[in-house]
Design goal:
single chain, alpha/beta, Cobalt-precorrin-4 Transmethylase, domain 1, Methyltransferase, Cobalt-precorrin-4 Transmethylase, Domain 2, five-stranded parallel beta sheet, five-stranded mixed beta sheet, 12 strands, globular
Length: about 280
């Protein structure tokens, strides 16, 4: 692997939820910078034994950049929890790479939200219950980072599915903002509290918005807490099914089923695609 800084998403925690590309970059790395507070050490089993390791849990941005500066010819992996694009704090590192003329790439990872949905076995976009998903957090000490209209109470009137990060230390404030006047949520709206999701010691608490603060406190956690809120979390069958595979619905590749049948019928594009794939298999 040539000299490159790879910002790699480690996924939500389980060391087999890193992508194949991420595992490849770890295997080829000369230097890896990782946060022991957010990424399990077992993730480094993907690395060579002689890889140079730096634990960023006690490092500042300047400390991390100093590692990059000191290793201009190395393959470096900066291992971030979840997906680097979501609260990954990579933009300032990307800016440095541009200014320093260093080659870099971003390798996506499985988000903690995706890991959470898998663990609780839920789809987060269900027809007539919720077709949008908001990622947000409480403002807290970093209030200056939040633009007006981006806090939890600003999104609450929509009543759509919400994933709240970085807010476990202020459970009462979170509950109050979700139930602000005019909110689309009620005290009975389903919620799930997840701590260190997909880690061996993960905690999952199913609750409601009205009991959310107590549910968060029951975990004893203030960090690595993810809260999901919304009607999609209700433990009842969906009232409506997706149009995508409905017999009466036409797509680019499938025609509406004939009357009295639920069998799929390929459209012209669907037939052409199937024929092209068949031809490709015959030439292998």
């Amino acid at each position: 692997m040539t000299a490159m800084i790879s910002f790699v998403g480690a996924g939500p925690g389980a060391d087999d939820l890193v992508t194949l590309r991420g595992a490849d970059r770890l295997a080829r790395a000369d230097v890896v910078v990782w946060a022991s507070s957010l990424v399990p050490e077992s993730m480094l089993d993907h690395c060579r034994d002689d890889v140079e390791r730096h634990d960023s849990a006690t490092m500042t941005l300047e400390d991390v950049l100093a590692v990059y500066q000191a290793n201009p010819a190395a393959a470096i992996v900066r291992l971030h929890s979840g997906d680097p694009s979501v609260y990954g704090a990579i933009q300032e590192q990307i800016d440095w790479c541009h200014a320093a003329g260093r080659a870099f790439e971003v390798v996506p990872g499985v988000t903690s939200v995706a890991g959470a949905a898998a663990e609780i076995r839920r789809e987060l976009t269900i027809p007539q219950r919720g077709q949008s998903l908001v990622y947000t957090r409480l403002a807290g000490r970093t209030k200056a980072s939040m633009r007006a209209g981006e806090d939890v109470k600003a999104f609450a009137p929509n009543g759509t599915t919400m994933a709240v990060f970085l807010s476990g230390a202020r459970p009462d404030e979170l509950q109050a903002e979700l139930l602000v006047d005019g909110s689309g949520y009620t005290a009975a709206t389903p919620a799930v509290v997840l701590v260190r999701v997909t880690w061996p010691d993960q905690q999952i608490v199913h609750t409601t918005v009205g009991e959310l603060a107590d549910a968060i406190r029951s975990t004893g956690a203030t960090m690595t807490v993810l809260v999901l809120v919304g009607d999609v979390l209700a433990d009842v069958p969906a009232e409506a099914r997706s149009h995508l595979y409905a017999p009466e619905y036409t797509t680019a590749y499938r025609l509406r089923s004939e009357g009295g049948s639920t069998e799929g019928r390929a459209s012209a594009r669907g037939r052409a695609t199937a024929q092209a794939r068949g031809a490709a298999r015959r030439t292998r």
